[in-house]
Structure formats: C-alpha cells, structure tokens
Amino acid sequence: MNNTFNIHRFGWYARVEFRENWKAYALFPLVILVIQLGAIYQLCGPLRDYAYYKQLTGYMLRPYPSLLFSAGITLWLVGSFSFRYLATPQKSLFALTLPVSAFERFCFAWIVTVPVSLLLVYLFWHFSWGIATPIIKVIYPKAFVEYNKYYGVGIYSSVFIFVYTAAFMLGAVVFGRFSLLKTLSFVLGISVVLYFIKLNLLQILIPDTTKMFFSPAPYWGTFLNIETASGLNLWPRSTMQLPYFVWWVYCLPMVLWVITFLKLKEKEI
C-alpha cells in the first residue's frame, strides 16, 4: 500500500487500536494524576517543617515546573508504549493484512503520544492544582500559588519534552523490548560523553582556566562561564546561538520523527 493518508481509513484504524488497547491507554491518565499529586506533595515539603514555617512571612509555590516535568515523563512513557507496540513482530505482520498505510499507523501513534498526551497532562495539571490550591491555603495560610509567571519554564525546556520524546519513539522502534530503559541509558550515556568532550576541548582551547561552568545538557551548549587564573570572570556569547536554538527546538524533533517513521516502515518489509 502506498504511504497515503485517508481520514476514513485512519479513523477506522484508530477505533481498532483503542478497542484493542484501551486498558493500557486508560492507565496513562492515572500516571499523570499520580505525578501531579507527587509534585504537589514535594513542593509543600518545606511547609511541613513546622520550625521553618513559623519563620516565614510568605511562601510561594510554583506550579509550572510540575507541568513541564509531568509532560515530559508522560510523553516518554506513551511514546515508548505506542511505538514499541507498533514495532513488535506480531503487530508488523498483522499490519500487512490491514487496509492502512504505514504513515497512518505512524500518525496514530504520534497523535496519541504528542497532542493527546499534552492535552491530558494540561487538563489533569489544571484539575489537580485547582483542587490542591484552596486546600493548601487552608492548611498553610502563609503559602500562595503563583500562576502568572512561568518560573523555570523556558523555550529550551521544550527540548525536554519534544526531543526526548522523539528519542524514546525512535528507541522503541530500534531497541524493542525494554526500550524505555535502553533509550534512557543511551541518552544519558551520550550526554555524559558529550559533556567530557566539551570539557576537555574547552580546557585545550582556553588553558588559563581555573573554573569552568556549563550545562551538562547538550542543548544548553551556548551557556558558558569561565574564571581565569588572573581572576577574570567571563561569560562569552556564541555567534551560533540562533542556529543552535533552531536545531534543538525545531529541527531535531522532526528529524527524529522522520527517522522513526522510516525505521517503522522497515519493520514491515
């Protein structure tokens, strides 16, 4: 079958998939809720210290990092399940008998992983904080929740969601069984290797360095703070910051999605 997209055929395939795997997909909203409740409990940790709480004049709770964290974890899990399920030998063989293209199967898994999961995460995040906020204010009158500022949530944070999710999608197709753990180990290993390569390269290029600070995350590559032996504190700016930003935020997720589709198509051959 040609890699075309037909909305009626896609809708039929989506109904079949949900009917066969509704129990597994129903677990993911529960995972989102558990993550949110855990994040709220963790954020209120300092308030449970009575001696510390008595000294406070006010305490601000910042909910947006919990939205970012739960979105990342949920999309990794859903992506690993959806694409691992599509890439199993039994599923690939069964797909050959279905009147549906590989592109439609990929689109179904992608829609479930990215837009549907993001929407569910936001709804459950809003629901859980909407219930928790008045309870927190009753138990801890000095606490208040700040919804007006996106503390800790920058544009580069989208890498945590989209690039890593695309990596888990690809890992699910390539690694197969235990793909979540294998992909996580691979991503962490690559990050550590890149960190030490960058560290050694900068020490060679700038030998007069006593201290050097930069993010271990490769997508924060333009952040650098250097302290020299003469006492200078330098914050060099990269002229490649915009291309670096465009690559990590916009290009790399799409590249990984295309590779995932091609690898998924290979499984059917």
TrEMBL record:
Keywords for this protein: Membrane, Transmembrane, Transmembrane helix
Residues spanning the membrane: 24-43, 63-86, 106-125, 150-174, 186-206, 244-264
Record keyword Glycosyltransferase present: no
Protein's UniProt name: ABC transporter permease
Source organism of the structure: Runella salmonicolor
Lineage: Bacteria, Pseudomonadati, Bacteroidota, Cytophagia, Cytophagales
